[in-house]
What we know:
The protein is α/β, with parallel strands linked by helices. Helix content is 42%, strand content 19%. The protein is flat and about 65 Å long.
Amino acid sequence: MKIGVVGLPNVGKSTLFNAITEAGAESANYPFCTIEPNVGIVDVPDKRLTELGKLYNTQKITPATIEFMDIAGLVAGASKGEGLGNKFLSHIREVDAIVHVVRCFENENIIHVSGSVDPIRDIEVINLELALADLEQVTKKLEKDSKLVKTGDKTLAETVALLEKVKAVLEEGKPARTLSYSEEEEKLLKNFSLLTAKPVIYVANISEEDIEAETNALAEKVKSFAKSENSSCICLCAKIEEELISLPPDEREIFKEELKIKQSGLEKLVIASYDLLGLMSFLTAGEKEVRAWTIKKGTKAPQAAGKIHTDFEKGFIKAEIVSYDDLMSAGSYLKARESGKVRIEGKEYVISDGDVVLFRFNV
Length: 363
């Protein structure tokens, strides 16, 4: 999973990226300090892996990972190349989802590119630029396909109808994701890699003073906006997250308790990302390795096996499955089997989050 972190200059975007990836990306109080996107591969926090590791006395623990891409601060006019905008927009096309960082704090020592703090205005600046970039792309595609639709190609006719539908909403300056699509339209839409069709998590970057409340008046406006377009919103303080990650691991929990922080920014982002993209994890466990595998909700056993190796899917016979909770309660796989908690499932079984799975296959 690849996630792009975007936002206007000086909203705390690179500070947050540093905190969640420990990548040490440059963060400065001036626009465009991020030119090429910084990339950080982050382990998905999952305490179940640690417990399974103890149970199996495993040699290796391999968590699922997320790739975060810190994309340079966009500005008004980005769709026309302002602030190296075209280059930045091309980076966004590569990601599965967007984390849009919005400044929700006042600080006279940190310059705002627009001269004042207004999170909804800031969101709309970026959304408009992305919509304008998509509109240009959709218009060109529509002009080309409209000439060819007379050939009687049914798929082409459906594509033109979809493009006209999307163009209408983009002309209003609204994201393509605000529309409802049929299953067939969603398949066609993926071919266009539209910036505004990508799912979004708005991150309201609040001040240290608002940590305990986990919100403020500006952040509440962002929450309402996100709800209006069926996007997600989380609140955190990028500065505190950066301070947290600078501490030794054994001191981080103490720091979180002192500030009454229930979850780290990374944990919040991972949960929101998985929920937004409809993802979950199944687990495999043994003495050699305990590992988490990320799949779409609703994935059946053979396709889940294919995540491990294509041969597993091709030669799938059955899957031995026990839920993580049942396995930990039993104390061992053998005891779980003896108590009837290990099930044999076939090709139609839909994997559940936290299933500990052993695939049987033949090639």
